[in-house]
Each structure stands twice: as structure tokens, then as C-alpha cells.
Amino acid sequence: MALDTSITPALQTEGLGKSYGEVEVLRNIDIAMGQGEFLVLVGPSGCGKSTLLNCIAGLEEITAGRLMIGGRDVTQEPPKDRDIAMVFQSYALYPTMTVAENIGFGMRIRKVPKPEMDAKIREVAELLQIDHLLDRNPSQLSGGQRQRVAMGRALVRDPKLFLFDEPLSNLDAKLRVEMRAEIKRLHKTTGASIVYVTHDQIEAMTLASRIVVLKGGDIQQIGTPQEIYDTPANTFVADFMGSPPMNIVAGRASDGKVHLGDLTLPAPAGLPTDVKVGIRPEKLSLADGAPDLVVTPTMIENTGAECYLNFSLGGSTVTARLPGRMDEESTDEVGLNIGAGALHFFDTVSGQRLVD
Ligand SMILES: Nc1ncnc2c1ncn2[C@@H]1O[C@H](COP(=O)(O)OP(=O)(O)O)[C@@H](O)[C@H]1O
Ligand SMILES: [Mg+2]
């Protein structure tokens, strides 16, 4: 999605870097985020997501580049002057205060008049569907309800930018899915600009208007969920985004063809001889008519709605994601088709994508 440059970006970083002494944790981070975008920073643990969010918040000083929020250079400004609100993974609520007092705490400090404060608390509580809990104490709430209160504290602020750091990580799987839908709804309703950190690629895919994939302090790719999924910039992104991950097989290309073990498939011209070939598991299907390849299962896993059939191809284990159910003990040969345009090509050494 191209950024509309006529509108002041919600957030802009230019050559942002962060080092702790000798240790470089973030390098050359260039992000331009539009108003109302839901930008998700995703990557494995330790890749620098929280550090980047803390730099945006001003909780950490950046050591290179600059940072603008709402078009204003805030690089030198303390957190309180940046007009941001943050929701963390651990949502420490004040245990002796009611839900209403917790949500209103910041407004009380800022001496917002009581009628205005009460109205705002009610509005936000209704939005979060916790208006029936306003008189309770945090100890009388479930994990999901506490997380809503924590979000409520951020929402009453009406800031330029919301920052979320893995806000759902402490919740169990089912609640996480529910809260994910809630957050999506909140974003739709409020039109807020949100930077959201997660290590969970499903959260990233479902919530983001655009995703920033990080690895080891470097941006790997920025794009819409579809762009990231359909045209991953390198093998890291291809592997990280998708479950099961994209299969990557060593191939040999020649004359408009690519050879993967015994299998020969059409390929674009101009590929290097040695190439890494990616195939998403769902692009393999049970053969309808003549199979493109016949495989012997090495392992079959049934998840309920679908099954993962593993087999060996060109020295790698490849997974096909098939609808329905199969006998997990079966080693009978299975004929598969490969969807049109299913192949991705990557450089063997750099892992970079070779063709669009
Ligand atoms: N205060 C610090 N001093 C030195 N290294 C740090 C400090 N804080 C974080 N790091 C390092 O920065 C890297 C990124 O950390 P973090 O941003 O917390 O990752 P993530 O949130 O993606 O899991 C890690 O390797 C971590 O060890
Ligand atoms: Mg983190």
C-alpha cells in the first residue's frame, strides 16, 4: 500500500539505530506509517521489537537517526511530550483501585473535571464492553477483562499514537483469539494509529494493515499481509510467515526448467543454476487426474480439519497441507499436484527473492 504523502504520517523513522555500548540492537530503521494504520512489528524473540517500540515511546534513547510523530520531530523529547499511549504485556493495574479508577487514573493526575472524566471512562468502558465491571477491583476480573482495563487506560488518552507490546501474550489461546478480534474491532471503530508488537505471525497477518518483519535488528520486509505472504523478500520471511512454513528445497535450474530431486517443473528464464525453491504447503493438493509428483509419506499429522503430509523431495522434508483426514500409519504412495505459480525462487547464498 503506497503511503499518501499529502497526509502527515502518524510515525516516521529515518535511519533509526540503537546500540547498547558495542551491541547494535537496531540498524537503519526506516518506517513511514500513515494515519490510522495498524502497523505490526513482527519477528522472533530478541530481534529488537520491544526496543524499537520503546524508542518510539521515548523510554529508550535512539543512538542514530531521527523520529517523528504526527510530523513533529520528537527525537529529543521525553515520553510525556510525545502524545503516545502504551499497552504492555504485563498490564499492572492498581490492585486497590476499581476498574473505573484504574481507567481514570491518568485523567485524575491531569485534573480533568469529574463529569468529563466520568463520561470518558463510561465511553471507553462501553467500547471495551466492561461497563458492567466499573466498580470491581482487578482481583475480581479474568485475565481478558484485566487486559481490557489496561487497554482502557490507554484509550482514554486519545493520543496521536498507540503502542502495544505483545498485549495478548499472557492470555490463553482461546482468549487470545477473542481479544485479537476485539482489538481489530477497536481499531475499526476508533481509526487510531497503532504500532503493535508480536512474535505471533497469525496476529500479524490478521491485525495489520502493514507488517514490518524484523530479524536481528534489521528490517527484512515491509508490506501488507498479502504482499508479505505472497512475495516474501527472502527465505527468512518466507519461513517465518506461514504455518506450516513455506517449504524450501534446493533446486537446479536450466533452460526454463527447475529440477527438484526427480521432479522437473517449468521455471522462469535467467535463474542461477543453483537456486532455492519455495512452495507453500497449501499449494500442494491431492492429484486431480495426472499427478505432478508421486510421493511416499514419511509422516502424516491430522489436525482435525486438515492433514499435513510430509515427504522427502530433493533432500528436504516437504509438507503438503491437505483438506480432510488421512491414515497416519499409511506409507502408500500419494499423487500430488502443484498449483500454478506456486514456486518462489531465492538466491542460495543471500536468501533474497529472485523473481516477482
Ligand atoms: N539494556 C540492554 N542492554 C543490552 N542489550 C539489550 C538491552 N535491552 C535489550 N537488549 C538486547 O536487544 C535485543 C533486542 O531485544 P528486544 O527488543 O527486547 O527483543 P524482542 O522484543 O524482539 O524480543 C536482544 O538481543 C536483547 O538482549
Ligand atoms: Mg519484546
Automatic annotation (TrEMBL):
SUPFAM superfamilies: MOP-like, P-loop containing nucleoside triphosphate hydrolases. It holds the Pfam family OB_MalK. One of its GO terms (molecular function) is ATP binding. InterPro entries: AAA+_ATPase (IPR003593), ABC_transporter-like_ATP-bd (IPR003439), ABC_transporter-like_CS (IPR017871), ABC_transpr_MalK-like (IPR015855), ABC_transpr_MalK/UgpC-like (IPR047641), Mo/tungstate-bd_C_term_dom (IPR008995), NA-bd_OB-fold (IPR012340), OB_MalK-like (IPR040582). Keywords: ATP-binding, Nucleotide-binding, Transport. GO terms for biological process: carbohydrate transport. The keyword Membrane does not apply. Residues 11-241 form the ABC transporter domain. One of its GO terms (cellular component) is ATP-binding cassette (ABC) transporter complex, substrate-binding subunit-containing. Gene3D superfamilies: 2.40.50.100, Nucleic acid-binding proteins, P-loop containing nucleotide triphosphate hydrolases. NCBIfam families: PRK11650.1 (NF008653). Belongs to the ABC transporter superfamily. This is Carbohydrate ABC transporter ATP-binding protein, CUT1 family. It comes from Yoonia litorea.
